[in-house]
Amino acid sequence: MEAPAAVRAEGLGFGYPGREVLRGIDLSVGAGELVALIGLNGCGKSTLLKLAAGLLTPGAGRVLLDGDDVARLPRRAAARRVALLHQSAPAVPALTVRQLVRQGRYATRGPLGMLRDGDDEVVARALADVGVTGWADRPVDALSGGERQRVRLAMALAQDAPLLFLDEPTTYLDLRHQLEVLQTVVRLRAERRLTVVMVLHDLNHAARFADRIVALREGRIAADGPPAEVVTERLLAEVLGVRGRVGIDAEGGWPVCYPDHPLDPSQLLRNENHIH
């Protein structure tokens, strides 16, 4: 029998009173894939990640992790399957890097076990894998934004889960640190054999680093496929609301977008069919 997808959404729907967010999402992510979710603010990208991590309950449909309905899994059991790095997290005064990364061990060690002295091998590896072992005893709030994001990535890795979800991991970072974080994710995906789904706002980053791009528009999947097939002028217009051009990187061969100007809503095509 064929192995189940690492993540599979079936007829997934979700909304708040008076506002539908996701409508009939069918999506399958294979083990080892790196998938980028793109789309305008409010299209449902972050909501989709939270549903797939078991943090929200679907209004319709379901999400399967290796064939198991995530909504039926106990919270700690789900956390052993998938680690979600949220877009932002509140600062925790006086917490050191080591203490923050240990919090990723909650699913395995429990609320008391993750606070006891001494790092287990998983914490030590997480610190080393993102290059922050030397900062382990520094206060997190003394770090720069790029350094702090690497530490938060280490905390997610400390869950030791095979699925890694990243919600806009490059937000508020300068270009150097954006590339540093994304290159680290790509490297760790290969070294740890992770399945990665990440929300990105920069289509050029998605085209360069992802195996596959899934574009959401008004709560539905508007495009799904390899960057070379998905990244088109039509996608820029219909999904991102900009007129622009698409070229090919001379060295890497991935698509490169050149957005020219925003489109007026009246100019946007209202075709609900999938973009090809």
Describe what you observe in this structure.
With 276 residues, this protein is α/β, with parallel strands linked by helices. It has a domain at 7-88 and 161-267: Rossmann fold (3-Layer(aba) Sandwich). Helices cover 31% and strands 27% of the residues. The chain is built from 10 helices and 12 strands. The strands form 3 sheets. A 6-stranded mixed sheet has the order 6-7-8-3-9-10, with helices on both faces. A hairpin with a 6-residue loop joins strand 11 (242-248) and strand 12. Mean pLDDT is 91; it is low at 269-276.
Quick tags:
276 residues; alpha/beta; Rossmann fold; six-stranded mixed β-sheet; four-stranded antiparallel β-sheet; 10 helices; 12 strands; 27% strand; disordered C terminus
Write the layout of secondary structure elements.
Elements: E1 7-16, E2 19-29, E3 34-38, H1 45-52, E4 60-65, E5 68-69, H2 75-81, E6 82-85, H3 97-102, H4 106-113, H5 121-129, H6 145-157, E7 163-167, H7 175-192, E8 195-199, H8 203-209, E9 212-217, E10 220-225, H9 227-230, H10 233-238, E11 242-248, E12 255-262
Helix pairs in contact: 5-6
Entry summary:
The protein has helices at about 45-50, 75-80, 95-100, 105-115, 120-130, 145-155, 175-190, 205-210, 225-230, 235-240, and strands at about 5-15, 20-30, 35-40, 60-65, 70, 80-85, 165, 195-200, 210-215, 220-225, 240-250, 255-260. The protein is of the alpha/beta class and about 280 residues long.
